[in-house]
Amino acid sequence: MIDKIIQIGEENQFLLKEFLLANPIARINFRYFEKRNLSPYLLNNHIVTNLYYEGIVCVGYGHLDKDHDIIWLGIMVSDKHRRMGFGNFIMNDLISNKNADSIYLSVDKTNLSAINLYIKKGFKIMEEKSDIYIMRHHKSKSK
Ligand SMILES: CC(C)(COP(=O)(O)OP(=O)(O)OC[C@H]1O[C@@H](n2cnc3c(N)ncnc32)[C@H](O)[C@@H]1OP(=O)(O)O)[C@@H](O)C(=O)NCCC(=O)NCCS
Questions:
Q1: Which sign, positive or negative, has the C-alpha torsion 48, 134, 35, 17?
Q2: Which of 1, 23, 40, 57 is most buried, most CB within 10 Å of its CB?
Q3: pLDDT-derived band of residue 140, with 50, 70 and 90 as boundaries?
Q4: How many angstroms is it from 61 CA to the middle of ligand 1?
C-alpha cells in the first residue's frame, strides 16, 4: 500500500534520478526523461512531480506536465512492483488533481498494460499516429 508521496523539487531531484536509474525496463516505455534534461527548469512546468512510496521503498513515479495549455500525464511503476495495484493508485492521484480537468498522454501502441490501465481510468483515444496513441481524460465526460 502506498503510504507516502514525496513531491520532487530542486532540493530532492536526486531521488528521482535514483529511481529512474534503478528501473531500466520501465524506462523502455516511459521515455520522458530520455528526451529531456532533468532540471529545475523542466520541473517548473509541472503541476505535480511525485514519487510514491510503500514504507521506504519507492514503487512509482507520476507527473502532470503543463505544456502551454495542455496537461500531459507521465507514469512509471518500478520494475519489481508491477501488477500490484500501484499504477491504479498513481493514476487516481493524478486524475483527481483539482488543477487538471483535461489530461492528455501519449502511449506506444504496443504498450498494452498501460493502454488497459488508461482505458480503465476513463481515457479515450483522440489521435492515432504511426506508433503511438494520444489519449485524453476529461472529468466532465468520464466517470
Ligand atoms: C503501465 C504501468 C504504469 C501499470 O502499472 P501497474 O502498477 O503494473 O498497474 P496495476 O497493477 O495498478 O494494474 C492496473 C490495471 O492496468 C492494466 N494492466 C497492468 N498490467 C497489465 C498487464 N501486464 N497486462 C494487461 N493489463 C495490465 C490492467 O487493466 C490492470 O487492472 P486489473 O489488475 O484489474 O486487470 C506499469 O506497467 C509501468 O510502469 N510500465 C512501464 C512504464 C510505462 O509503460 N509507463 C507508461 C508510458 S505511456
A1: positive
A2: 23
A3: confident
A4: 13
